Amino acid sequence: MLTYPDIDPVAISLGPLQVHWYGLMYLLAFGTAWGLGNYRASQPGSGWTKEQVSDLIFFGAMGVILGGRCGYVLFYNFPQFLEDPLWLLRVWEGGMSFHGGLLGVVLSIAWFGHKYKKSFFQIADFGAPFVPLGLMFGRLGNFIGGELWGRVADPASVPWAMVFPRAGELPRHPSQLYQAALEGFLLFVIVWFYSSRPRPQKAVSAMFLIGYGVFRSIAEFFREPDAHIGFDLFGWMSRGQLLSLPMIIFGVVLLVIAYRSPQNGESKA
């Protein structure tokens, strides 16, 4: 059994200014996306400019933050919102949802496409490879914050199990690190290299949806469900798995459509 590292939630403190690790993870996520986007935009025939990449990251960041918060309230704790509507605005109390952030990004892509006269999947296929590393940083932020911990584990079979300060005295799976590895690093490698060659339009977006949905569903077997929710669907599927299932189905359908309709154009790196 490993000892959970006692990490100060404040990464940088300059007088009254305090930068928390979780905020720093967001900064790294958007900064990495900006760097990768500019790299891809610089490739011959990309059809993208640095100005467009900067705007895309800005619109995407707004979609992630606003959609992530609204999604958490809607999908995970709507009763609390009904009791206290202003809780929606108290983002410093925590509570973000990937699936809500995804919906926010979909809306931001639509707005960006209207501004720059690009189709939805031109934008989505270009931006999808930049997302996983941001998810990785987000999960590392969860781990540093000692939140969203895993299920109870037997140290004899899981020697890396940890006792999280706010999760009782039993050792647990560090599921945040599992998610960082699967939904973050591994998904990045898959989508980045898949998108490094011309693919039918929609295919890169489909690969991201399938990959995230599958990896999130796997990681959820080791993650402790939210205490106020428990399990959905006859007591065996977590809320994260339930929300990921439509992503997988839609991703598979989208991939089939992409390869059956190559005349729709190719997404280029």
TrEMBL record:
PANTHER family found in the cross-reference section: PHOSPHATIDYLGLYCEROL--PROLIPOPROTEIN DIACYLGLYCERYL TRANSFERASE, PROLIPOPROTEIN DIACYLGLYCERYL TRANSFERASE
The highest taxon in the source lineage is Bacteria
The entry's family comment says: Belongs to the Lgt family.
The molecule here is called: Phosphatidylglycerol--prolipoprotein diacylglyceryl transferase
Quote the record's binding site residues for a 1,2-diacyl-sn-glycero-3-phospho-(1'-sn-glycerol): 139
Compartments where located: Cell membrane
This protein's pathway:
Protein modification; lipoprotein biosynthesis (diacylglyceryl transfer)
Catalytic class of the enzyme = transferase
